[in-house]
Design goal:
The protein has 287 residues and is mostly beta strands. Strands 1, 3, 4, 7, 9, 10 and 20 form a 7-stranded mixed sheet that branches. The radius of gyration is 21 Å and the shape is globular. A hairpin with a 2-residue loop joins strand 5 and strand 6.
């Protein structure tokens, strides 16, 4: 919400699909948050500018991630500010991660729609919107696979296992400290229209790399499927860590023409980093 529209009836406020600012000015708005829960609901709020997670100020406090508890039956209106550098069209989105302190290791509690993260996109034009402010890597194009069912945007799979992909979903896995996390990313388009979208890997709600890249640019023709193998760096700390992949449709396009103006992360996986096992443990116990 624009600051000047704060006292305007929500039904009469102008669209927030696009903003124009002058070079050197920050992007300043009010973030509106609400929840249908009857108790305060904990969330983490993050902001991505041109598909990179960046620090921003929320209610005057600057940080990469902001922890909030949304009160019940209240619309929170929080001032938000982020610097925007360089002329051109900038893609920006804010995403909210629910229950960041919840770390269940029961696979059933990890199935969607548990812990679905979501947010809204907007476009910021600095001086002009003629050219994107960032060049994306060339899109990886999926081969036609004659698939007609089961829509999948970006689901991590356990590699090296037999069976169909839906039985290999990475819900919970244990990795020894110091090892690499091997993942296979699964994307599928059963529809009749092509899809173009960006995938961002996150570990513990912070942007990380998958297959040595901080983002993937995917193009899925109709009835196609893609499997992408890669590694994800592991945190050094032992314990349960959170892995997610955010998907954003039609990068650097007018939001009135995109497939979906929202962003989402439908699956949050538990990655248990454990200390190295002792020789006794590997042999089944002491003699």
């Amino acid at each position: 919400m624009r600051p000047e529209d704060r006292n305007t009836d929500p039904r009469r406020r102008p669209s927030t699909h696009q903003f124009r600012i002058q070079m050197g000015n920050p992007f300043t708005v009010f973030l509106i948050l609400r929840t249908g829960y009857r108790e305060p609901y904990p969330v983490l709020v993050s902001l991505f500018l041109d598909y990179e997670q960046v620090p921003f100020a929320l209610d005057g406090r600057r940080g990469l991630l902001h922890y909030l508890e949304i009160p019940p039956d209240v619309d929170m209106e929080i001032p938000l500010e982020v610097p925007v550098k360089g002329a051109g069209r900038h893609d920006l989105f804010i995403i909210v991660f629910p229950e960041p302190d919840a770390h269940p290791t029961d696979p059933q509690k990890r199935l969607p729609p548990s812990f679905v993260a979501g947010g809204r996109r907007t476009v910021i034009c600095v001086e002009s919107c003629a050219e994107p402010a960032r060049s994306l890597p060339q899109a990886m194009t999926a081969p036609k696979a004659d698939v007609h069912r089961l829509n999948v945007l970006a689901f991590p799979l356990l590699p090296g296992h037999d069976g169909p992909p839906q039985r290999r979903l990475l819900l919970v896995t244990t990795v020894e400290k110091g090892e690499a996390l091997e993942v296979e990313l699964w994307a599928r388009n059963p529809g009749a229209r092509p899809r173009d979208y960006v995938v961002l890997p996150l570990m513990d709600f912070g942007q990380t790399t998958f297959a040595d890249a901080p983002l993937l640019h995917l193009h899925l023709p109709p009835h196609s499927e893609l499997f992408i193998p890669g590694r994800i760096p592991l945190p050094r700390e032992e314990g349960v860590h959170e892995l997610q992949f955010i998907t954003i449709f039609d990068p650097y396009r007018d939001l009135e023409r995109v497939s979906d103006p929202f962003v989402n992360a439908n699956l949050r996986s538990a990655i248990v980093v454990a200390g190295p096992r002792s020789d006794n443990a590997e042999d089944g116990g002491a003699e």
